[in-house]
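Hey,

Quick one before I head out. I ran the complex with glycine overnight. Inputs first:
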Amino acid sequence: MKKYGLNELRQMFLDFFESKGHLVKSSYSLVPHNDNSLLLINAGMAPLKPYFTGQEVPPRTRMATCQKCIRTGDIENIGKTARHGTFFEMLGNFSFGDYFKHEAIHWSWEFLTEVVGLEADRLYPSVYLEDDEAFDIWNKEMGIPKDRIFKFGKEDNFWEHGAGPCGPCSEIYYDRGEKYGCGKPDCTVGCECDRYIEIWNNVFTQFENDGKGNYTTLKQKNIDTGMGLERLATVVQDVDSIFDVDTIKALRDKVCEISGKEYKKEYKFNNQCIMEIMNGAKKDLPNATVVLVLGILSLIFCWCYGFFGLILGIIAVVLAGGQRKLYLQSPDEYTESSFKNVNAGRVCGIISICIAGVVVVVLLLVLMGIVAGIGIASFGL
Ligand code: GLY
């Protein structure tokens, strides 16, 4: 398979669907218009919702786009998987009451295997578990053996994002090989690891969700497909993650050059969010210092309490010293464990304050006792 660049793949997709009678449009804005259900455009279909519902007449009943998208829901997965990003581009071909399951499935397979050249043996379709029609198209028309077609429930194979057009879907997964797998014996299509990666989603848009979970059947049957361009480039270029495809790597290399950092040289949790938490924790530095001073004082006067006082003083100094060391770390030294240690440091600080407090109170009592003793001795009381 040729290792096409991301820009080439985008053009190949749009040309392919233009050849199938689609009107190719440029990406719509990331900011939704007349759609209160979304903060940002999260799929190719989102700006086209009125065409799916029949509320507006599309310029053509077949359209194709490469839409800029942001999925806020994916943010938690960024950096943890090879396939999630904040901003991404979604390739999509759409039918507004025109073709349906048959053409959508055939063309998705044709594009992936004949145009891009992905090995058919590494592709696995999935269908919504009640969608026998889509199952039969894959099995009887496309010749995919039954045991290579996966059936999933609503969570995986029913596409909806907020209110609007939605429906059961049929996805296509690509097996990137064992080197990307989690190694679990049951690792297969649907596993959360990065081996079987979903690249194409054929949505059979037949329903409308009113946003409260009530579904009505649309007047027309539609097709909404979505394929993450960066994911496609990842498998075509056989690179580790979406951050390693040609165009994104070029940006990443420039960022490394400007920042003077080497990508992945050392895996550290020094991202903005962690820096802010650590910097917030630094406000505890004066407290830790006070605790340290109290601990040292209690050490100095430990002879007052013998062995027990010595132990308490040492514990207070060690805990408060450790807490201060953590807060004095420079951002370059932040690691995942220093982040976790912030709370541990606070607990240590509280314990050392208590210990030092007990020591000081006992010390005061002893001093009062000494003063009282001197008084008694002086005045002969
Ligand atoms: N609209 C189809 C998808 O985002 O997967």
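The first helix runs from residue 6 to 19.

Talk tomorrow,
K.
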